[in-house]
User: What shape does this take?
Amino acid sequence: MEKYRDESLSFEERAKDLLSRMTLEEKLSQMTYQSQPIERLGIPAYNWWNEALHGVARAGTATMFPQAIGLAAMFDDQELYEIADIIATEGRAKYKAYSEEGDRGIYKGLTFWSPNVNIFRDPRWGRGHETYGEDPYLTSRLGVAFVKGLQGDDPKYLKTAACAKHYAVHSGPEGLRHEFDAQVSQKDLWETYLPAFEACVKEGHVEAVMGAYNRTNGEPCCGSPTLLQKILRDTWGFQGHVVSDCWAIMDFHTHHHVTATAPESAAVALKAGCDVNCGIVYLHLQAALDEGRITEEDVDRSLLRLLITRMKLGMFDQPEHVPYAAIPVSANNTKAHQEKNLRAARKSLVLLKNDHVLPLCPSKLRRIAVIGPNADSREALKGNYYGDADRYTTVLEGIQNYLVGTDVEVAYSLGCVLFHEKHHSDENQYIYEATGLARHSDVVVVCLGLDDTLEGEERHQSNTYGSGDKPDLKFPGQQERLLREVLDAAGDKPVILVNMTGSAMDLNLAEERCAAIIQAWYPGSRGGQAIAELLFGEYSPAGRLPVTFYRTIEELPEFTDYRMTGRTYRYMKNDALYPFGYGLSYNTYRYDAVEFPYWQDSKLHVRVRVTNQGTMKGDEVVQLYMIHKSPVLESPNCSLRGFQRITLEPGASQEVEFILGQEDLMMVNNDGEKVLESGEYEITVGGGQPDHRTEELTGQKVLRFTFWLP
Assistant: This one.
């Protein structure tokens, strides 16, 4: 028996043996995302391109969870781990079913190009809703959880292979991503842009990393010796494979102009450590060999990594020996998975404002008006990189379903279209209908926002704006006018805004005049049910903002400026409209210090007691922030260093402990080095950040603990 078929040997030994049996032509046939079959060696065709951002995407029916930014708003890494495990189960079920039919095409493999752990540094970025928000600590914890959930816990085999993307310093503008050079200081690089990737590699043992389109400090990311060799492999010890973003290597010579030809671009990328090309430039590797730009050993180095990944996925072993290979198609989109989907939607919703109007009581209502372009929109449930749900519940449908069997009448109006209307010349047509309903209803629910046709990827065929980015934070089209006129028509009757976007918007008008505001993100296929249940008090909301909602866009630096100064809660200068980490509840929670923070085994222990003083069972997101009170170095306003989501019955208490290592107290200096500074530190624990605005919005103060480091 050939060594590569011997399951008792290590994957590396087997992969080296298989590699030794391949001709050069056969080797080169494996280097793009569409790896060709090699029948004489029993290697089937394999397409490396698959997506699983918030469910198995683009491959038929699957459980469609809330978009990634909504999953981040749960502030619950264990829940995210369990969701990723479900996604991997469904991916395995599909892989088995498709393979048995001989279908090995795109979106049918086990290499999922997720999660996106870029930092959402600017609310204009169209792809920000694919991320876990603006904070490197939150993104790190959630990225690791997602990677571990996708890859499984078997000691030998991967359930699926996760991929941390887009490495590195990538977050718009989308329209410039193919040519942009992200100039970033070493401090910002190591303090903000790299921690999530480092955590995914060191803690999550992520199998793959995807290079970004842009350059970082002059080097194209998919051909950067600094990023791919010096940092990723030499410093972090990464053992997996690197994939290019799609057609990114072509940008080397067509947009970045760091090379002149496709063979030269292929050589630069391969020698830097990019192992598989999503695109066609690696079809020029033979020319690069002929020109003496690379050697066959360069090809072997990368191909060995790719073969090892396929072996870890069990593709060369007897199916009965691979624990995940028997997962049947019936494991896809199950009732239990849909229950988890609904649970995730509930946990993701953030209550931004509530002037004692929520929860609504059906017995006190005769008529509720549901208005707006996203009220009955399936697109607003999806986000991007989505699968097909077996059933969608829009906000309108959720409210209608909830009120079945009651005497409450549900009236609906589109109000206005999302962006622009092609078929009607009268732009007032729907607004007058909506204002009429507002006058004659007891309460009005207005559903505004965006969908992935307005915020998304550069030049995506569905994207109305073209670039994918938002020009500003205003609602597009007639939406703000609709809200203003509905508010005027409603008079003293409560108007509730449900904002369905993947990013921060200008909510100043709503904050001033709406009775309640719910940030719903793109809440997945069951999102409308979760929103209706929140409105009528079936559960108490506890989602938290993973991004800052700014008062104005004018306070932000230029979109193309990658310096963190003035950006995100960590370095912003003004009060936020709604701060990072903020979210209201139907309960109030009291925080009491159990004991002053103490050191044990070189770790700092912080213990608090949280009590549910409300009348409902509910979740609370306990957050710990660190503030360096006497820094020599430039330090953030505060930095998230711990969070736990807990569930408490009315009147119940729970002790919560955080354990901080010395690394959690370290600062990053101007050389990008982590250092432990002496001086005064403050740790805060509460339901949000220790900023003035959060205290003003919640009416609660955080616990504060001060200590010194010599």
The longest strand covers residues 589-600.
